[in-house]
Each structure stands twice: as structure tokens, then as C-alpha cells.
Amino acid sequence: MPKPRIIITIAICLVGLWTAFTYAQVRSERIRWEYKVFTTRADSFPSVPAVNEQNMFLNAAGGDGWELVAVENGGVLHVFYLKRRLP
Q1: Residue range 18-36, pLDDT digits in tens
Q2: Strand, helix or coil for residue 67
Q3: What is the Cα–Cα distance from 19 to 11, expressed in whole angstroms?
Q4: Are residues 10 and 50 in the same domain?
Q5: pTM beyond 0.70
Q6: How far apart, in Å, do the first and last CA atoms of the chain sit?
């Protein structure tokens, strides 16, 4: 009959292996992102061509799988931050 220490040692090793395997599997399934920044000048913003340019860019980016994350309005530039999930 095996000693209780051996059984406990084997159980601890199995739990450790299971934990390591699970961690490695979760780590390999992390989502990876690609980022893009688009800027326009704030002084040209009220004009129709500038707004159309922004709309065309954002629509095309959305069609390519980009998501709008943030917009920074201030100073001289309008900054659009986008992200896309990598395959």
C-alpha cells in the first residue's frame, strides 16, 4: 500500500501540471490588436470637404474591420484612434 506522502506528492504534481497547461492554453488565446491614428486639422473642420473626408475615411475603416476607440478634439488637430483585431 502506497504511503500517504507519495499520494499527496503525485496529487500536487498533477494539479501543477494541470495549472501550467491551462495557463499556457489561455495565454495562447489572447486577443491581439492593431492600432491606427487618423488626424485632421481643426481649423478646416467646419468646412464640408473636411467633414466629408472624415466620414469617407471612417466608413472605409469600418468596412475594413476597424473600430473607433476614441476621438480627441482640441488644439490644432482632431485625432481619431482606431483598433482592429488581428487574425
Answers
A1: 777 776 655 656 788 999 9
A2: strand
A3: 12
A4: no
A5: no
A6: 53
